[in-house]
# Entry
Amino acid sequence: MAETIAVLSQKGGTGKTTAVRTLTDAFRRSGVRTLAIDLDPQGNLSDYFDLPPDVEPTVADVLAGRASIADAIHDDLVPANLTLAEAELMLGGKMGRELTLRRALVKAPDRYELILIDCPPSLGLLTVNALVAADHALITAEAQYFALQGVEQAIELVELARDGLNPELSLLGVLLNLADMRTIHSREALASLKDRFDEQVFDTTIRSSIAYAESAERARSILDYRPDLGADYLDLAGEVLERLPALSTAAPRLAQLR
Ligand SMILES: Nc1ncnc2c1ncn2[C@@H]1O[C@H](COP(=O)(O)OP(=O)(O)OP(=O)(O)O)[C@@H](O)[C@H]1O
Ligand SMILES: [Mg+2]
# Structure
């Protein structure tokens, strides 16, 4: 069974999609067979991977029971588009609505060792589905004054999912993203997160740079577009591997990329 990580934040624009995209790249380059799932009706992850917008079936078809997960995989990605908003509404009225993605993912092809799920910027039913389907949660926070509050809300949801439907769920870590450590407020955001969540906060922070928007626009990985910045994500991938013993055999290959 693959290790499954849900990447979430209550707030928009904390770098979830960029983190899923870039960690997927880093792990694949380290030889980890990785499936990425876009669970956001905005479909940004599908765009970042440059998938055609009309590709079908999508994750919405999987949640609606119209397609299997295997059928919805295109280039190791399960895409999403606006039809996911409709699928979420339909799901709301169904029995077992929180378990739908989990039930679908049980049938994911065995070849994958890692599954990364990109959640929408809300703590609604889609994010709950991701948390119930996942083994681990990775919470992203933007380096600003209200970071702590957003992370606390996300952690509450992780705990609810664990206490209710997914006792195996663990918090993989909290990532401070879009950071500029030259500024006081980025440093304060990191200090307050470390104060509150201690070693659950990744040591790696992701530096803020306009190059991320440029690389997204060009559908190029930051690892190629700006390797000097991409180094942050390779460091993060290293920390993630330390926290996932099942994948530790990939560490030497990851180290070669760094
Ligand atoms: N480290 C970074 N520095 C600067 N900009 C970044 C960084 N990471 C991502 N961005 C940019 O910030 C914007 C939001 O990033 P991204 O789409 O990854 O966030 P998100 O949390 O997935 O957003 P949403 O909540 O809307 O899904 C994008 O334009 C992206 O290119
Ligand atoms: Mg996103």
